[in-house]
């Protein structure tokens, strides 16, 4: 069947590009053109997967900086994805490649354009035709509108995508629109903004899907329904972590091209249940302590733009706080992967593909992908939960690496985008120099988990609560700046929640008292006010002022127009070995 289709689409002709003659071949999967008049050795060949052809137009056409069409009879122009490496980040930049072909006759020209269009329809079924685009005009450096109109809209137009654009006038407008308005006919939704805008789309799309399925999303026991609408992100925010971690670069053109060709990247989502029956969703950071405090502080300084996080980070760091709490977690299957196995989740990731089979019982049946998720708690009992009690600088949970420009490898460099697990990072109370070392390692390739006061666990669910009242009343705001480690928070212990040992507390003699503190004059001004006993949660950039939460990871709940990070090195090997391969061989197609 496939071979038959391949044969029907196959086309081979001698065409001109400029003043050189090429042998052009369309196989259905690839469009390839090889210089015809040269001897074998220096033959110039270009091969583009059909899946990466953006569009084909009759005549000699240019798109950027402005559209121009020279309507000639025997010419056609092919637009496609072209890669270049990015010096500043880990992924590859995508640009719009363009080649103008001249045919010997108009009939042949029409045959070529028709065949390419049919090949696109056949081999790229997820390409969007209609998109809803939300632009936050105030995100990041406030360039959202300009970025969309100058860099993204021309590409959508070229690909024949019709877009309904809404420039937001208030926070949560995009989320509310997705929850309430008619979405018939839309293939996907796109945000132009930062992680906060993405979060609005995430909430809208998940909420709408559960509403339509008649499910109560606030009930942590419910298995949520996979979302049929794809989400696209055009980065124009402050951290842009979700874009960075799923594409590898912060670049509007690259992201727009991923949308245009209908790339599809499943993504794990963490539901955070808090307060009386409320839920929020996160894909990057659910953080208590340091990251919660940084976010709360940064809200006061929004006018600073993206720099507010650095400023607030320094302020919070200097206030040297730590918080008591009880963390319980449900470990993931250690045979699948580990947060310290030094692997990276790249495009075509094997761990994620294997997890797809585990997460969806009938993975071979495409249609069942959205209905047969077996949920994370199919076999677990209370005995499987592990409980940890102590004082922490921060507690972070992330469903993916959470890499961003500040931290190119991310909060958890070996986390996976779509394996149905999250990484729980516990940073016990430690002296400021120790904590600074931990933070600083995020900016280098040094292992931030290789520190005595840090632990990381791959998990399926997490519970957090404040320590019991007597313990909570203990002082906070630690002023110890020594490096001896004695004041470290790592004197709690670990136990199975359901077992007899249950919730171990710190051993006698190691309890921190105010006498242990060493005052540092530099810090004094910041610490004289009474430090709070509880922090807030940072849920993908939104403050949740309820310390007690329950988090559950939903494997591959949503899909993005992305394909994971492409590794430049493997791409090069691949290109050297097989000329016709224009990208990483392991990609699923
Ligand atoms: C010493 C250098 C330390 C660098 C530490 C970098 C850690 C970076 C981890 C980033 C994880 C990001 C997770 C994503 C969060 C976003 O959802 C969320 C919302 O983003 P949006 O505004 O684009 O909508 N962003 C955030 O919550 C921002 C978190 C950023 C934390 C940055 C902390 C900077 C710390 C600087 C410490 C400086 C110490 C100086 C000592 C004198
Ligand atoms: N028109 C608007 N006015 C005010 N806030 C908005 C508007 N549109 C969106 N928002 C909110 O602004 C917040 C930050 O947006 P985001 O695009 O993530 O930028 P940044 O990365 O700079 O924080 C989001 O939480 C979003 O809900
Ligand atoms: Ca994951």
Automatic annotation (TrEMBL):
Protein name: Zgc:158263
This protein's GO CC annotations: membrane
SMART domains found in the cross-reference section: DAGKc (SM00046)
Polar residues composition bias: residue spans: 492-512
Gene Ontology molecular-function annotations: ceramide kinase activity
Organism, as annotated: Cyprinodon variegatus
Region (Disordered): 473-515
Pfam families for the chain: CERK_C, DAGK_cat, PH_CERK
One GO BP annotation of this record: ceramide metabolic process
UniProt domain DAGKc: residue ranges: 126-276
């Amino acid at each position: 069947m496939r071979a038959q289709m391949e044969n029907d689409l196959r086309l081979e002709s001698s065409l001109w590009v400029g003043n050189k003659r090429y042998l052009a071949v369309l196989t259905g999967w690839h469009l390839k053109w090889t210089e015809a008049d040269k001897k074998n050795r220096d033959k110039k060949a270009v091969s583009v997967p059909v899946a990466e052809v953006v569009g084909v137009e009759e005549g000699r056409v240019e798109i950027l900086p402005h559209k121009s069409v020279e309507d000639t009879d025997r010419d056609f122009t092919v637009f496609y994805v072209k890669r270049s490496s990015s010096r500043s980040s880990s992924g590859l930049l995508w640009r719009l490649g363009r080649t103008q072909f001249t045919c010997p006759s108009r009939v042949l020209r029409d045959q070529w354009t028709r065949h390419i269009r049919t090949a696109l329809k056949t081999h790229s079924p997820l390409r969007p035709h209609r998109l809803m685009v939300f632009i936050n005009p105030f995100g990041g450096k406030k360039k959202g509108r300009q970025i969309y109109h100058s860099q993204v809209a021309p590409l959508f137009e070229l690909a024949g995508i019709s877009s309904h654009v809404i420039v937001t006038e208030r926070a949560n407008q995009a989320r509310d629109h997705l929850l309430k308005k008619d979405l018939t006919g839309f293939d996907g939704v796109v945000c132009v903004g930062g992680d906060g805008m993405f979060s609005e789309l995430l909430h809208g799309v998940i909420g709408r899907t559960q509403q339509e399925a008649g499910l109560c999303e606030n009930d942590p026991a419910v298995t949520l329904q996979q979302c049929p609408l794809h989400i696209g992100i055009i980065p124009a925010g402050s951290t842009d972590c979700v874009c960075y971690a799923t594409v590898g670069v912060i670049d509007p053109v690259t992201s727009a091209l991923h949308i245009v060709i209908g790339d599809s990247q499943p993504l794990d989502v963490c539901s955070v249940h808090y307060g009386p029956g409320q839920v929020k969703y996160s894909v990057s950071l659910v953080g208590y302590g340091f990251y919660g405090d940084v976010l709360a502080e940064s809200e006061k300084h929004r006018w600073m733009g993206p720099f507010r996080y650095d400023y607030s980070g320094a302020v919070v760091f200097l206030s040297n706080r730590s918080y008591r709490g009880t963390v319980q977690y449900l470990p993931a299957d250690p045979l699948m992967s580990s947060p310290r196995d030094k692997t990276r989740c790249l495009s075509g990731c094997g761990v994620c593909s294997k997890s797809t089979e585990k997460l969806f019982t009938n993975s071979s049946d495409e249609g069942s992908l959205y209905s047969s998720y077996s949920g994370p708690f199919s076999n677990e009992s209370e005995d499987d939960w592990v409980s940890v009690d102590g004082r922490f600088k921060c507690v972070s949970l992330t469903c993916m690496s959470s890499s961003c420009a500040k931290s190119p490898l991310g909060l958890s460099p070996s986390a996976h985008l779509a394996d149905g697990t999250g990484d729980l990072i516990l940073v016990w109370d430690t002296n400021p120099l120790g904590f600074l070392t931990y933070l600083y390692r995020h900016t280098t390739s040094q292992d931030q988990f290789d520190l005595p006061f840090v632990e990381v666990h791959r998990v399926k669910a997490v519970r957090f609560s404040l320590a019991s009242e007597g313990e909570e009343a203990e002082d906070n705001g630690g002023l110890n700046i020594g490096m001896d480690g004695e004041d470290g928070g790592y004197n709690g212990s670990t136990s199975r929640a359901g077992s007899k040992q249950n919730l171990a507390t710190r051993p006698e003699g190691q309890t921190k008292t105010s006498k242990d503190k060493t005052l540092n004059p530099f810090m004094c001004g910041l610490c004289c006010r009474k430090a709070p006993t509880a922090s807030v949660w940072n849920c993908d950039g939104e403050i949740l002022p309820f310390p007690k939460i329950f988090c559950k990871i939903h494997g591959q709940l949503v899909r993005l127009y992305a394909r994971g990070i492409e590794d430049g090195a493997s791409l090069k090997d691949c290109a050297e070995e097989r000329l016709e391969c224009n990208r990483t061989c392991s990609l699923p197609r």
